[in-house]
Amino acid sequence: MRSSLLLSATALSLGLASFTLYPHTPPAPLPVDSVADLAADPNTTDEVPKDNKLVIYQMMVRLFGNQKTTNKPFGSAAENGVGKFNDINDKALQELKKLGASHVWYTGVLEHATMADYSKLGIALDDADVVKGRAGSPYAVKDYYDVDPDLAVDPKKRMQEFEALVQRTHKNGLKLLIDFIPNHVARSYKSDAKPAGVVDLGQKDDKTKAFAPSNNFYYLPGKSLVVPKGNDPLGAAIKGPKEDGKYTETPAKATGNDVFSEAPKIDDWFETTKLNYGVDYQNGRKTYFEPVPDTWLKMRDILVYWAKKDVDGFRCDVAEMVPVDFWAWVIPEVKKVKPDIIFLAEAYNPKEYRKYLEQGKFDFLYDKVGLYDGLRRLMRGEGKTEDITKVWSEESRGFSSNMLRFLENHDEQRIASKDFAGDPLRAIPAMTVSATLGSGPVMIYFGQEVGEPGRGAEGFSGEDGRTTIFDYWGVPEHQKWLNGGKFDGGKLSLQQKQLRDFYSRLLNLCSSHEALRRGRFYELQDANNLAKEYNDKDLYAYLRYTDNKRVLVVVNFSATQTYVPTLKVSPAAWKLMGLDPLRNQFTYTDVLNGRAVSNTSRVTLPPLSAVVLEIEPLK
């Protein structure tokens, strides 16, 4: 079937690609000897992909449902507002499901150190000297067995409100992850909600010893903590509770980022203390894993507690700062209770990836240092497409199905911020690669889909291109989609609606299309790099295919240049797909952008565009 296509100005504004019809030219004849050896072909690997195409929507619960727009720097919860568990209602969840999400990562659920006063509930008031931000960091956990009272309409019933959110999430056909922060806790850690019979962290520690295998913390005997000078968590004009630089801790404990000094620096994780998993850091990192350390047992019990509350997985904070031996032991222990629960590791060392998957038993790892960093450079006009090749051919070779791909999360700068790309449309080619390069999970961060730029000095967080995790705040562009709790995008601009539509089409496609869920991968840079219409510095192309379905993905990272290449599939790739271009002609349908069928692989790629071409033999 032939069809002529018009590209509207609206589509052009989003960098969508179009077809132009030209006479069909079949690829070069297939070699007659045999199908290429996958292991030897430099354009692919012999990995058998696993169908792990989770689509994770990460949200800061504190911010997601907040409708207030005051946004006063260092503002209180009353002034700036705070989102609640109950804000995440059926309508919100249905809209996330329509967007393409299969899982929601509820970030900031556990009770953490804060400057909010909940002493009437029996929760001790924290000392501002060791709290970052008015709302506090969700990664300075104060009670592993409780949830943040800020997130409840009725703080006395906070756990019931969280449990209702779990049920509501499942009722709407979604699964949920929460954070597990195993490496460190707030200096004020004390569990008020622990089940009967649970001995609290540090309760039986021998504090006269710097290290003991049975201790939960590391100590600096004879020394007292010195709060870093210059710490001013609420700015010069406001004093937080007990903010006087005189916080006492004797003996001092080691700081969360492996600082064994009583005087951590201002840029250390000084608000946290390091947990002891049986590694003597100050004596050659000698390990004491037999008998099973007390901290291991306590952490297992915490994970099982939440598994029994029917959470579906854990995003494990700085997982590589905890011994892999612990994960190898604890993950199977938790899966005895809930076999299908997933463990996702925040990981940054490619040399350790295989160990944390195979020995450590993680289901998924962050692909930050490889794919995220490479795509970030390309989005900023600083990178090269060879960085993508390095990811699949080296860094995650053999286990790409276990790598979580993303362009935003709470730690990273917003794409639309001036600190990153300055334009949310630069995500179109990069997000297409992130979602379709492999059969592993993909993630977006709330507000990413409408181009939230993370503007403003929210307070402790400052003007850094990120959405704050430390302060009470309204997230302006996200709030336009929130639209007073209607969750209908009623206040979004036309361009924002188009951007969100792109994310929805992409995420739904990658989770529903057989070739993208579990297809093999074949890079086409070599096949195309001699064509003068194909600039491999800006363009990146690859195949994903099964026995029944195959797609050709091509993206244009250039912000200024339009390309009109005829995309070439190598003879080896045709053979691997089980297709014979000598006997068949093929149709190419852009299943990402909803373009009509064409019988040519020549496409128009405007700046910042992407196509996903489904290849079918012409019948």
Features:
619 residues, alpha/beta, TIM Barrel, Immunoglobulin-like, 2 domains, 8-stranded parallel β-barrel, 5-stranded antiparallel beta sheet, 16 helices, 23% helix, disordered N terminus, Alpha-amylase, signal, Cyclo-malto-dextrinase_C, GH, alpha-amylase activity
Helix content: 10-25%
> How many DSSP E strands?
23
CATH C-level of the largest domain: Alpha Beta
- In whole angstroms, how far apart are the ends? 10 Å
General description of the model:
- The N and C termini lie close together (10 Å).
- The protein is built from 16 helices and 23 strands.
- Residues 1-13 and 18-36 have low confidence and may be disordered.
- The strands form 7 sheets. The chain has an 8-stranded parallel β-barrel. A 5-stranded antiparallel beta sheet has the order 18-19-20-23-21.
- With 619 residues, the protein is α/β, with parallel strands linked by helices.
- It has 2 domains: 55-512, Glycosidases (TIM Barrel), CATH 3.20.20.80; 517-617, Immunoglobulin-like (Sandwich).
- Strand 16 (403-406), helix 11 (427-436) and strand 17 form a beta-alpha-beta unit.
- It has helices at 9-13, 61-64, 77-80, 90-99, 158-171, 294-307, 324-337, 353-358, 368-379, 386-395, 427-436, 476-482, 494-512, 514-518, 525-528, 571-576, and strands spanning 18-19, 55-60, 103-107, 110-112, 141-147, 175-180, 184-186, 219-220, 252-253, 272-274, 279-280, 286-287, 313-316, 342-345, 364-366, 403-406, 442-445, 520-523, 539-545, 550-556, 586-590, 603-604, 609-617.
- Residues 58-488 form the Glycosyl hydrolase family 13 catalytic domain.
- This is Alpha-amylase.
- Pfam families: Alpha-amylase (PF00128), Cyc-maltodext_C (PF10438).
